[in-house]
Amino acid sequence: MSKQVDACCSPLVREPLGEEQAAELARLFKAMADPVRLRLLSLIASHDGGEACVCDLTGAFELTGPTISHHLKVLRESGLITGERRGTWVYYRVHPEVLARLSAVLIPVPA
Question: According to CATH, what is the number of the domain 3-106?
Answer without folding.
Answer: 1.10.10.10
